[in-house]
Design goal:
The chain has 347 residues and is mainly beta. The chain contains three helices and 20 strands.
Amino acid sequence: MFHDVRRLWMIFIILIWIMISCTANRDPIITTPFPTNTFTPLPPTLTPTRVRLPTSTPFPTDDIFAITPIARSNASPTSPLGPTYTPAPPTQTFTPAPTLIGLEIVYFTSNNEAIAPGDNVTLFWQVRGAQEITIYRINEEGERNNPRPVEAEGSITLSTDPAATELVQFVLVAQTGNFIAEETVEIEISCEGEWFFSPAPGGCPSEASLPSAHAEQVFQNGLMIWSSITNEIFIFYSDNQIPTWQRFTDAYTEGLPEIPVDVQPPQGLLLPVRGFGLIWRTNPTVQNRLGFALTPEVGYSGIIQAGTDTNGDEVLYIQRENGEILQLLPEGSSWQTIVPETFTESE
């Protein structure tokens, strides 16, 4: 039995030795640890923030919102408004003077509904609580002129502009300190007659338009027009001397020489005949200023009409052969051509 035990121990020792020998000759096994998941935080999230943009003060607009991302970090935040907005300058508006309680224009009126140009008008008014009261006439440009200080109640007769064509206006201004009240009166211009052409000149015609047999002749420095209705010859100069136009009674009668026989015109020019020739031959000033005729005398059906200027002096309007209107200002001071848009038939 002892030998059996000894044999077992020897076998055990031999096995141990074999195992140790095998282990020493093998490559060492290196254990690699399994990778572990490392937590990496996500980048900061962006949170949209509504910011109301400024709008221009004088022009109301709808609300406007812009979404600007703001990072959750320690960095200094950027202005959410973006570029600076500069509003447009406000529109200039008229601010009326404040009205004081107790300052009142009870009435401001006229007894004239319509007038002829240059007629006088009578104004009536009553004002309460005013320290200063003034009546102005308003011209066609809308300007206030001819101020008339007046009492709190009364009436006044004022002249109007003879050249007004549509209406005349007056304004009453009542004032106490910085407080103002105003009232305007408008009176229509009404003409008994009408002009035979348009656009019409200022004022009203002083007489109806007169159809007339006319004759016209053009000269080197102007022209002549004869009107049968007035039996006159009108001479228009273009030499910039005064008078710029003249009028003569037509003194020609049958039996007088038609052509001035003592004068010979240059080649291509003509001598005036009959009534034109008589004035041209007997008036050296007319002859020298007009020169010779460029065209023969031409007859046509024309119109003549009279009006007045702002001083009440007569202004004539004569129709030419080509349809243009010649305006003759008082005392030969000036004449000008009007190209009409339309004509009104005379009765």
